[in-house]
């Protein structure tokens, strides 16, 4: 596993929570937005998004609802109040992580 | 000539690696079907023919990896459901038996038992709790039928004998 794969794996849930903070989305939509916004940096096998979504739903961070749109059954995911709380905690944690990492890298230059 | 790959073929390959309840698998595969259909449509918009588009979509999806992780995510909760499906009716039937029989082992007659509010509260609770617990309502109903079966065998039938 490459360092990028490791970072991607560690941040998948946070990225999903961040996207869903904008509103409910279905799996394919999430995968496309992740790719567009990261310029492909967080590219992963799209199918791996679903185990993450299902695990987050089991944790009570997401709810889901089926909707029929253009003859297709789409499962829309949305943040629960607990999911919003986790997003807040993780945002703060990631900001600290990036800040500290930057400080360590800068001191080495 | 090689036969053409279809979305159903891809779904079958994913399903072959899943060993979950029919309902869970069906819901999962419906979700994946939508994903593949949209990915194929997108690839075709970009100029790929249908067969190439499906091959690209299947490759990007990562069938084996996704199926293995989905199996892992759902195995725990499904095992817990199976335990609860058996344990909850047994627990409620035991509570009823404790209510129906005195410590010495003599039983109230079954007609008296049916007039006690506690009996009906437990009967209702044994449906409501699984109804909230299980994602599939028919599991709750199956548990409730099992509860009544146990109740008839271990509570009502001995009460009739005592009577």
Question: How would you portray this structure in words?
Answer:
The complex is a heterodimer of chains A (109) and B (163). Chain A is of the alpha+beta class. Chain A has helices at residues 3-20, 27-38, 49-58, 81-107; strands spanning 25-26, 62-69, 72-79. Chain B is an all-alpha fold. Chain B has helices spanning 7-15, 22-45, 50-61, 63-100, 110-115, 117-133, 137-162. In chain B, α4 runs antiparallel to α6 (117-133). Chain B is rod-shaped, with a radius of gyration of 25 Å. The A-B interface holds A 26-28, 31-32, 45-48, 50-51, 54-55, 58, 72-75 and B 14, 27-28, 30-32, 34-35, 37-39, 42, 60-63, 65-67, 69-70, 72-74, 77.
Quick take:
The complex is a heterodimer of chains A (109) and B (163). Chain A is of the alpha+beta class and 109 residues long. Helix content of chain A is 61%, strand content 17%.
List keywords for this structure.
heterodimer, A: 109 residues, alpha+beta, 3-stranded antiparallel beta sheet, 4 helices, 61% helix, 17% strand, globular, B: 163 residues, mainly alpha, 7 helices, 81% helix, rod-shaped
